[in-house]
Design a protein that fits this description.
The protein is an alpha+beta fold. It contains three helices and seven strands; from the N terminus they run H-E-E-E-E-H-E-E-H-E. A seven-stranded antiparallel beta sheet has the order 2-1-5-6-7-4-3.
Length: 129
Amino acid sequence: MTLEHYQDLLNSPVLVHVATIGPNGEPQNNPVWFDWDGTYLYFSQTRTRQKYRNLQREPRLALAIVDPQNPYRYVEIRGKVVRVDEDPDKDFINKMAKKYLGVDKYPYNQPGDERVVMVVEPDRSLGMG
């Protein structure tokens, strides 16, 4: 199956679970807000997060989205971070706050947060349903 089969999930306000490899080879998995432009998947991180450090060391990752209406329908995307974009004005995280919370500004910024946008290029995908 191709990602086109899952456009409804890729364009909806559902969470994507991002799996990275930790410093000792252990997996780390966390849900995040994301955006999809038809080619790349994007998600926000702060420079102090373990996920950011993991991806700086090893850019390969796996992402999984489960359909909230049917837990037996999902898509897994494997790929790599091909770029890290600065987000000093919080434009991307504010866009995600609009998508996920319906508000114009991300309400959880902490003083000193340095936000970046992880740009993921899918290599392959598989799914069910």
